[in-house]
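Continuing the batch. This is chain 6 of the set; chains 1 through 5 are on the previous pages. Same settings as before, nothing changed between runs. Recording input and output for traceability.
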Amino acid sequence: MVPDTIGGFTPGDVLHRGGMAVLREATHPDHPGPLLLKLPLVAEGDDPAAIVGFEMEQMIMPRLSGPHVPHCFGVGYEPLPWIAMERIEGASLLPLLDTLPRPAGEVAEIGAAIADALDSLHRQGVVHLDIKPANIVRRPDGAVVLVDFGVSHHAQLPDLLAEEFHLPYGSAPYMAPEQVIGVRGDPASDVFALGAIMYHLATGRTPFGDPQHLRAMKRRLWWDPPPPRARQPDCPPWLQEVILRCMEVAPQRRYGSAAHLAFDLRHADHVALTARAGRTRRDPWTARIRRRFHPDHQQSLVRAVAAPHENAPIVVVALDLDTMSEGLTTSLRRVVRNVLATIPGARVACVNVLRTRRVLPDAGLDDAGRNKHVQLLIALRHWSASLNLPEQRLTHHVLEALNPAEALLDYASHNRVDHIILGARADGIGRRLLGSVAAEVARDAPCSVTVVRQRGHGSDRRAAEAN
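Output for chain 6:
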């Protein structure tokens, strides 16, 4: 049930329901509109990644500006996560796919407008990572607006999707090879996706089809697509040159910037033609074999594009919100502040593990019909508010797993965590028979571990070092 008002905005009719969120018309007394409210899909059985991606969009959108992104009027987390933004007057590129292929001049014009939008986005430190026709909206004057930043990467913000999930996110027909193996944050990935879109517009077919499994998606690491002229002989050589340069497997062989790409698309006579321009067949099978089995090929997809925050130490605070006493809560906050005083610039990741069941289906909603994952995120935010850390130094994570200790250890290993702080379980028959999460984490963690006890229950804290 959607509340009557959300953050002062009044939600209206549903305009679009996507894989991760729903868009509703909205009104607000202080904003004439037209407005949209974006709400995550939080019903029973919805993908937890939808909520995490929504958090990323909430962090990124207020930081964006310019004519190529929707203006953001606000974000919030209660009574459920929301984003309020302008409603763009115009249509996406999706209807264009019903009348393919398109003339070369039109493909170049559309591609240049998209490249302008990407250049603006990249200059703001953001890589979109899901460039596809549905996420490209054209204003009446032809300017392009990019929408849906749920899988995007911001150079100054932690990457929540990369931290919590080990799968590639994006749209399979247009996804760059490095995204398939988990590389995020390279602007060249958006250049590849734009090349794939222009390929689709020029030939009427996507370059790699629409693979549904990771194994099939990985073929683009060593398979090149059929040249556009093999599928559409009328495609001019200069346009094929541009498209295939965008879609080079190695990021360093693509256009160095979206601005350079836009220039070439507007100045066909300036495009330097290479062997790419005249090709009518894929590379021979010998070349594909060399790429697939060369020991350095996959490494060539990874460029040095690490953001500043990625080198910052990470301190995980593991919180069992259902059982923590007020005394333990106070002790945990004190220990966190003490640890941060000794690790300047560290980021705090507040983590809760939502237990899943091995046999019975999991109930994603509580007795009041609210999404448990969302409610835990809200509770984590309340707990961390008194730490007074800026957004780029404070993140919140709800991990869904059968075993809390294994989930925490996997998160710590995957993200190279420097320190884990967690509360000791209260004494009781369950702890004596089953052991404790704290003991298992302290024993097996790849980093320092501080186990905090409430005052009056033994020592105030115990620290354990794990190799």
